[in-house]
């Protein structure tokens, strides 16, 4: 363990292991902007955001927070915070505008410059190859429900790895395949906005298959690199001990968590989920599962909240990923209700439950083969404005992060191989179907001027990093 002490000479009460990675995370479409620059082609999110009624306020990521032009300033902010690692995503349509074929070297050069700037600042780059911005030409050919898209993804991954594999050690293939599959192809709340339950199951499978193909291709080239995927996991509780509520929790846990953990780490799909969704004809091939379960070196866990669910009629809570939600993403289980739990909520209306993070981490450690774990996203979104003195006093975010980091510390004490934490997000940014109405950043961004102002939470997180842990509670 580290021996860092605070200014009074006392060691932090929740002290993290030496070498623990302290990071922040972003995604390309949410921050880069420059949508029509540098040879970048259109993504499904460009198309979706420009479609009236899909994104609050008609917002798009065309400019976002202009990270494409301002990345040196953003790397300087990371350095000021003391980050030891930075998780960002690479825009597939910036690298390969058609989703196949010709590689756009100007796009790769942008990521070469970013990686070099990070390394020069002493910050470890952690790229994610897919954070939902599928090239539009691939969607025009059927998108993720088509098996061919998985092969195109592996080819794209190999191109990026060839350009950066000499300087990047840790890779994440796909981010939150649940969202891309079920919000994108079942409920239509996210790009590409389709409502086809059968297609959504195929989209989930082909993302996992593409992950496995990509890991095989990249590992063959550079065996000493480390590869993994990032999944969004939830603790799931039944509203009561009524058998219908207990079954509802089983169903949602299956679709949210086990549908991805089981094939990645056990080489099989959960039998009960296949039964729940049998009407849609999803029958995965054993050969595919052998590829999907190819060895990974780390698993990213994105955690924000707990689901409390019921299988009986009654009041439902707001769990939408879009202000325009009308269709369920819960394929085969759309009768399930998400019910109010009475817990405090974030500005997104999501339950605040740090105990659920400890539950998720210890469950993965207990029920699956051991693999290094990283919190690849965790944070809270609120509606915020600058105070009169030009600051953001985001005490609610600090409280959220403090509680969740303490949950991480408890998990480590319980034997969980948790190696790092990336908060979401470094910068306020485009929050998908919510546009610019919700802010998750440690750093406030004035979207009109692109001026960056670190919030109180940024100063707090910098002190946590400096001390190597959290102080005694006040």
UniProtKB/TrEMBL annotation:
Enzyme nomenclature, EC number: 3.2.1.21
Record key words, sorted: Carbohydrate metabolism, Cellulose degradation, Glycosidase, Hydrolase, Polysaccharide degradation
Pfam families cross-referenced by the UniProt entry: Glyco_hydro_1
GO molecular function, one term: beta-glucosidase activity
Active-site annotation: 176, 377
Hydrolase is among the record's keywords: yes
GO BP field: cellulose catabolic process
Similarity remark: Belongs to the glycosyl hydrolase 1 family.
GO terms under cellular component: cytosol
Organism encoding this protein: Actinomadura hallensis
Class in the EC hierarchy, top level: hydrolase
Keyword Hydrolase: yes
Protein name as it appears in the record: Beta-glucosidase
Binding site for substrate: 30, 131, 175, 304, 424, 431-432
Catalyses which reaction(s): Hydrolysis of terminal, non-reducing beta-D-glucosyl residues with release of beta-D-glucose
């Amino acid at each position: 363990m580290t021996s860092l002490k605070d200014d009074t000479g006392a060691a932090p009460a929740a002290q993290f292991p030496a070498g623990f990675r302290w990071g922040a995370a972003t995604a390309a479409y949410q921050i880069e902007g420059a949508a029509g620059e540098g040879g970048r082609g259109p993504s499904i999110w460009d198309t979706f955001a420009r479609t009236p009624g899909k994104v609050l306020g008609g917002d798009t990521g065309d400019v976002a927070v202009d990270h494409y032009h301002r990345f040196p300033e953003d790397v300087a902010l990371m350095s000021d915070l003391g980050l030891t690692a930075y998780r960002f995503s690479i825009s597939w349509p910036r690298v390969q505008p058609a989703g196949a074929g010709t590689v756009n070297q100007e796009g790769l050069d942008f990521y070469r410059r970013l990686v070099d700037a990070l390394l020069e600042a002493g910050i470890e780059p952690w790229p994610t190859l897919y954070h939902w911005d599928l090239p539009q030409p691939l969607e025009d050919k059927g998108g993720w429900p088509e098996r061919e898209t998985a092969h195109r993804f592996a080819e794209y991954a190999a191109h990026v790895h060839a350009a950066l594999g000499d300087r990047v050690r840790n890779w994440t293939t796909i981010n939150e395949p649940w969202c891309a599959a079920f919000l994108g192809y079942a409920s239509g709340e996210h790009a590409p906005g389709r409502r086809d339950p059968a297609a959504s199951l195929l989209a989930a499978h082909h993302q996992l298959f593409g992950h496995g193909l990509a890991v095989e291709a990249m590992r063959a080239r550079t065996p000493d690199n480390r590869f993994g995927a990032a999944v969004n996991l939830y603790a799931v509780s039944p509203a009561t001990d009524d058998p219908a509520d207990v079954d509802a929790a089983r169903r949602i846990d299956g679709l949210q968590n086990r549908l991805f953990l089981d094939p990645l780490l056990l080489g099989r799909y959960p039998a009960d989920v296949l039964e729940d969704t049998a009407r849609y004809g999803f029958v995965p091939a054993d050969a595919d599962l052998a590829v999907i379960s190819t060895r990974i070196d780390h698993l990213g866990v994105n955690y924000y909240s707990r689901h409390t669910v019921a299988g009986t009629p009654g009041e439902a809570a707001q769990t939408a990923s879009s202000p325009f939600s009308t269709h369920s993403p819960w394929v085969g289980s759309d009768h399930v209700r998400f019910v109010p739990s009475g817990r405090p909520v974030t500005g997104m209306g999501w339950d605040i439950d740090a105990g659920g993070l400890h539950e998720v981490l210890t469950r993965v450690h207990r029920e699956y083969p051991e693999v290094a774990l990283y919190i690849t996203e965790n944070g809270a979104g609120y509606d915020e404005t600058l105070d009169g003195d030009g600051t953001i006093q985001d005490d609610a975010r600090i409280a959220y992060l403090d509680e969740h980091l303490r949950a991480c510390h408890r998990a480590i004490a319980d034997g969980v191989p948790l190696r790092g934490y990336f908060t979401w997000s470094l910068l306020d940014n485009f929050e998908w179907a919510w546009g610019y109405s919700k802010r998750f950043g440690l750093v406030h961004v004035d979207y009109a001027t692109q001026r960056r102002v670190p919030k109180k939470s940024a100063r707090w997180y910098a002190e946590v990093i400096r001390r190597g842990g959290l102080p005694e509670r006040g």
